[in-house]
Design a protein that fits this description.
Oligomer: single chain
Shape: globular
Radius of gyration: 14 Å
Helix content: 55-70%
Number of domains: 1
Number of strands: 0
Bound molecules: zinc ion
């Protein structure tokens, strides 16, 4: 799944949990089924990275250091190794997250092409976070 989607899913998970550590680890576990589902990924690494950082920052501003934020952070954290790999810093065989290392098969689809496909995925992810905010996700 593209990283911005992991942030949104993790925020939803965190809003359902009362504990930041639990939200972080359940969020991280949620990365596996989301990666297994066949999906579109952003073609442009930097668009994905910029949108992911923007959405994480928005979650932090809206919810503070809460289970919502830590769910989002835990959910997207495994993609940090993908970022390092795509930048050429981390060799393929050094990746450890099961859906990145090949231990669990990663769902494949052609990459999302063009600005609008990426913008649509980002808009849906931002909208999910907005709904969580409107519904008053847990803040602690
Ligand atoms: Zn991933």
């Amino acid at each position: 799944m593209c990283s911005v989607t992991h942030v949104a899913a993790g925020a939803v998970i965190g809003s359902l949990l009362g504990s930041s550590p639990a939200a972080f680890f359940v969020g991280m576990a949620s990365h596996i089924p989301l990666d297994v589902i066949p999906h579109l990924d952003f073609e442009n690494l930097w668009v994905d990275a910029a949108l992911t950082i923007a959405l994480l920052a928005a979650v932090l501003l809206l919810f503070g250091l809460s289970p919502v934020f830590f769910g989002a952070l835990g959910s997207v954290a495994p993609d940090f190794e993908n970022l390092l790999w795509r930048m050429g810093v981390l060799p393929e065989e050094r990746k450890i997250f099961p859906t990145h290392s090949g231990l669990i098969r990663h769902g494949r689809a052609r990459p999302a092409r063009g600005f609008w496909a990426g913008a649509a995925m980002a808009a849906v992810s931002f909208a999910i976070v907005a709904v969580v905010a409107i519904m008053g996700g847990s803040r602690s």
